[in-house]
Specification:
With 383 residues, the protein is mostly beta strands. It has one domain (4-381). It is 10% helix and 53% strand. The protein has helices at residues 4-15, 52-55, 146-151, 196-199, 336-339, 374-381, and strands spanning 72-79, 82-88, 98-121, 124-139, 156-168, 173-185, 200-213, 216-225, 232-242, 247-253, 256-264, 267-283, 295-314, 317-334, 343-344, 354-358, 361-370. The protein starts with a helix and ends with a helix.
C-alpha cells in the first residue's frame, strides 16, 4: 500500500527538479527529467550507463550533483548587535535635519515556504509557491528617534505567492518564466488607511537557456525585482555546472553565486554570496519630526558572503545551517512619491526621508526542510 504523504512529496520534488533559477531554493536531487541522473556521489556519468540520449531529450537548467528539491521549508535567522546612524531629513526650509545614533540589539527573521506542482507534463511544468516571512527589530535606546520607536517590535511581514513555468524546447534549449506577488508591510489595525495596492509588490523573471550536457547548463534573461531595494529591471546570467564528482557551481548572477562541494549523497557544503532586497510599507505610530509623515516605505539592500552545510536527517527530512556576514548597502525610508515607479538596470536615486547607515554584522541561520523520500526516488529510478 502506497503512502499518500510520500507520494505527494515525490510529486513535488520531481516537479521542482528544474527550477534552479529561483533565488533561495536548492535544485533537486533528480536534476534531469524524465530519466533521473546518478546520485551526486556516483562517479559514473549518464553517458557511461547508456542513458545520455534519453536524459537529453528534454533540456532543463539543472545539472547532476545539485542538492535535493525543497517541498516545505522552515527557516529562522539572527544577526548580532550592530550600529545604526540615522538622519531624519526635513522638508521645511530653515529647519535642520535630525541626527541620531543607537545600537540594534535584535534583528531576527523567520520564514516558511511551500511548493507544489500544478502541471507536471514532460514538455511543461508549472509550480505554485507560497511564503510567509517576518522580520523584527529592537533598539538599545528606541527613544533616541521617532524612527526607532516606530520600528521597535513592529512585525514587518511578507505574504507571497508565485507561479513558475519551465518549458523544455528540445534537447538543448529551454526557458523559464516566473511571476510573483507579495504583500510587504506591517498589516496591523494601525495601518487601516493603507490599501492592498500599497502593500503589493510584483516581481518576475524570464530566462532562455542552453543545456550543453548533463553537467552544464546556462542561460540569459532579465529580472524585475526588489533585489536592490527599489523595483528594478536588470539582466541576469544563470550558470550551473558540475566539474567532477565533488565540485560544482550554481549561480544567478548578479544576485547569487554559490560554489558546491558534494561530500556524499547526504551532505553538501556550499559557499558564496547573495544580494537580498526588501521593500516594506508601514504605518507610523507617531509622525516623524519636521515632515509629519504618517506612512513610510523602507527599502533594504544587503550583501552577504556565506557558508552553508546541508545534511540529511532521515530520508525525506533535511536541515541546513548557515553563517556569514551582512554588509548593509541601504536601509532607508521614502515617502510614496520617492518610492514609486521602477528603474532600468539600477536602483535609482530619489529623495530620502530617513537616511540610515548600518554597521556590518555576522549572522547565523537554521533551516529544516522536507524533500522527496530517497527510498521512493530509488524505487522510481528502478522502474
Amino acid at each position: 500500500m502506497k503512502c499518500p504523504v510520500k507520494a505527494a512529496l515525490l510529486s513535488v520534488g520531481l516537479s521542482l527538479g528544474c527550477y534552479s533559477a529561483t533565488a533561495q531554493e536548492v535544485p533537486p536531487r533528480t536534476p534531469v527529467y524524465p530519466v533521473p541522473a546518478p546520485a551526486p556521489s556516483d562517479s559514473i556519468g549518464i553517458g557511461e550507463v547508456g542513458q545520455e540520449a534519453e536524459a537529453r531529450e528534454f533540456a532543463v537548467p539543472s545539472v547532476i550533483g545539485m542538492g535535493p528539491s525543497k517541498g516545505i521549508v522552515a527557516h529562522i535567522e539572527r544577526l548580532s548587535d550592530f550600529r545604526i546612524d540615522t538622519k531624519t531629513k526635513s522638508n521645511t526650509e530653515g529647519v535642520s535635519d535630525v541626527n541620531t545614533r543607537t545600537t540594534v540589539t535584535k534583528n531576527s527573521r523567520a520564514f516558511i515556504k511551500a511548493y507544489a506542482p500544478l502541471l507536471n507534463h514532460p514538455h511543461l511544468k508549472v509550480i505554485l509557491g507560497v511564503n510567509y516571512d517576518r522580520e523584527e527589530f529592537q533598539f538599545k535606546n528606541p527613544d533616541a528617534s521617532p524612527f526607532y520607536r516606530n520600528l521597535e517590535d513592529k512585525g514587518l511581514k511578507t505574504l507571497g505567492a508565485q507561479l513558475a513555468a519551465i518549458r523544455p524546447i528540445d534537447e538543448v534549449h529551454w526557458y523559464l518564466a516566473r511571476v510573483k506577488g507579495e504583500l510587504n508591510g506591517d498589516y496591523t489595525s494601525e495601518s487601516s488607511n493603507l490599501s492592498f495596492n500599497d502593500y503589493l509588490k510584483m516581481s518576475g523573471e524570464f530566462i532562455y537557456g542552453w543545456k550543453r550536457s548533463a553537467r552544464f547548463a546556462w542561460g540569459i534573461g532579465a529580472q524585475l525585482s526588489y533585489t536592490f531595494g527599489r523595483q528594478s529591471i536588470y539582466p541576469v546570467i544563470l550558470y550551473n555546472r558540475t566539474w567532477n564528482e565533488h565540485w560544482g557551481v550554481e549561480s544567478l548572477f548578479p544576485a547569487r553565486v554559490t560554489f558546491r562541494y558534494n561530500v556524499n549523497e547526504k551532505t553538501l557544503l556550499l559557499g558564496g554570496y547573495s544580494v537580498d532586497g526588501l521593500n516594506y510599507n508601514i504605518k507610523l505610530r507617531e509622525p516623524l519630526p519636521n515632515n509629519n509623515l504618517t506612512t513610510l516605505i523602507i527599502r533594504e539592500t544587503e550583501f552577504r558572503p556565506r557558508l552553508r552545510l546541508e545534511r540529511e536527517i532521515y530520508d525525506f527530512l533535511w536541515f541546513g545551517i548557515e553563517g556569514g556576514y551582512r554588509y548593509n548597502a541601504s536601509f532607508n525610508g521614502f515617502d510614496y512619491d520617492g518610492n514609486r515607479g521602477f528603474s532600468l538596470f539600477r536602483a535609482g536615486t530619489r529623495p530620502r526621508i530617513i537616511d540610515n547607515t548600518l554597521g556590518g554584522a555576522p549572522y547565523a541561520s537554521l533551516e529544516v526542510f522536507i524533500v522527496p523520500p530517497r527510498k521512493l526516488l530509488k524505487k522510481t529510478m528502478g522502474k
